[in-house]
Amino acid sequence: MASRRAYTSTSYSKDVTSALSWRTGLLAEVVASFVFWCMFLEFIAVLWFFPLEMMGFTGWEAVLVAIFVPSLTNIARIREAVACNYHKVRCFVLLAGLLGFNATFQEWYVQIFLAYRRDLWYVVHPNALRVVLVGLVAGLDLTAIVCRWVDQDEAKRERNAWALLLGFVVQVVIRMGFYTLNPSMLWNGSNLATMALVLASFLFLAREDATLRALAYKKSDATVAPARTVSGTGQGVFPVGLGLGVLLFLTQTMYSTHGVYPRWLELDPFPSGLVIVGAFVFGILLSDHNRLTFMLLAFLGVAGSALVGLAQINIVPKYVGLMGGAVFGTFIASQWLPFIKAMSSLRRPGGAMFVTSVVYTLFVFWSIWVVAYKFIPWYLGSGVLRERNRSMLVVAAILVAAARLLMNRVTFTSRWRVRPSVVGLLALLLFLLAAPITLLRFQGMSQNDPSITAVATQGGKPLSIKAMVWNIHFGYDHYGRVNFERVARAIEQEQINVLGIMESDLTRMFMANRDFVEYLEKELQMYSDFGPSTAENTWGCGLLSAFPIVHVTRTVLPSPEGELACLLDATLNVSGRNVTVFVTHFGNTEDKLDRELQTEGMTAVATANPGPSIFLGYITDRPHSANYNRLLSSGMLDTTTDLRRYCQYVFYKPGPDGMVLDHFYRWDSTDLSDTEGQVGMFSLTPK
Fold first, then answer.
1. What does each C-alpha distance from 394 to 136, 414, 536, 547, 663 come to in angstroms?
2. How far apart are CA 377 and CA 367, in angstroms?
3. Among candidate residues 344, 307, 345, the one with its CA nearest the CA of residue 324
4. Is pLDDT of 623 > 50?
5. DSSP-assigned beta bridge partners for residue 618
6. What is the C-alpha separation between 576 and 579, in angstroms, rounded?
7. 350-397: per-residue pLDDT in tens?
8. Who's near 59: CB < 8 A, 6+ residues apart?
């Protein structure tokens, strides 16, 4: 009688290739990883909505505890239970997350909220469900992924790690094609298609597991033992956790969309973003490097992060800073696999994941503190971290390099097989997909594109300007839904051909690195400008124009006490005539000195301009206040005598050639934003 011996997954891991295609399995896991990144990147964004609404701490920040769920992988029974039901757990979690997230965007759910909001506001608010749901999905799915990292089957660990990195690139490329939006998280059709892909992928992976178990049973003539996890070293918990925490933060913050570095450096997202994506893909291919290569990458990575900061303060050219960001991205991408390998050799992976969660959370708060310091108590370090985003990058780069050096002192047992041909081919295909998207988008944004300039005269005379000022509230409606598409349709219906928007800088990790200006530019077929750069830590001013933008000066107005204030001073070519448009957003009501200094700076700029000019501003003051009167002393005229306004204003200066105000009205934005729009219609006097 044949001897009966138990076979763990290690005994038949080599049959993965012969039983079913390793390549097909990798593609299936890439789909799952793509959805994981969709959820994880959305988590901080949905959590941020409540502090944004309340302009301070709300208690919802406690949901960040979901990030600490992977710490439970220290418990062996949890690891083994998840390992035995890995595909079932991930399939259920991801499908439930996609379905629930989509439900909170539906109008029927909003009606439920409106019916019960008086008594159950915190329970039925659409964003409340989103926060809890996305937090659970991100925490539980990351826990399952960590359990796979410490699985005994070497082939499964390797494939999962590669899939995690490739899945991240997939979401970057998809968002590149949809102007930084993620269709899987926003639109019914895309959401359902993603759910179908997830289901098909996990059905394939489950079938693969069943086939492998059958092969193992046939070979051993025995009962297959349940999957087990690695029993590794107890050393290296801190450096592995530190490195993974910083990597997770940097990858999400700087590389989750193509346009982050270009916006930091006042460059157009296209084609500059392709350089960043390509550098990150190249870093993935360098993941299995030796120690000498690591030392070179670490040096270049830290130097690259420093170059980004130097470019922001104009010590080196902007494109040198872009190259620095690209090199830094190569370094960051190349470090993922070594840290995951090290995790697979730890006896207590939950300890490392606890360190990861702490480090990640601290950096998340740092990234918020640098710009939202006004709403943070002084005893929590708001003054210390104010505008310290450049320091944040350099510190993070040094910590990754230091963690890797500390990790190299520990001998790890994991020796993985590498399939560079398969992974390299997939990475190359993703980059080749990104390249034509970039070329098509760049061609479409040409300043000579007739499809754009034709919009200038739609619904009006060639010398007519219909200008709107609107605080778009970071693209959220009253219910925390991302409303880019509805905003675009509303502007289109009003036939606006010059638009000044405030609170338009979403290129931050806690707003999912979306880019409202880029989206509106393409959807409305208009020219655009954005600034000052994200790195200047204003909340952003944006200008969209159906008329060509000849020149723009981007300025940060004085703000010694409160939020930094943005100013765009743009010259438009309106049928051969130059018209200046000012777009600005002053500081908070309580910061009196800031608003006085900002008014002084804006008045000086407006006085120096002879006109014709249009002012589209948010000055945080009432009509006939001191700051209001001082602005009008520059020669600008108000468009209405309505005293019910506050904050937003449309002023104009006729200029020597004459510009006439035809009409002014206030536009109700309904639930699109917390602020109305104001519209001024002007005509230039024909020569």
1. 31, 30, 16, 40, 52
2. 16
3. 307
4. yes
5. 585, 648
6. 10
7. 999 999 999 999 999 999 888 888 777 777 767 777 878 888 888 998
8. none
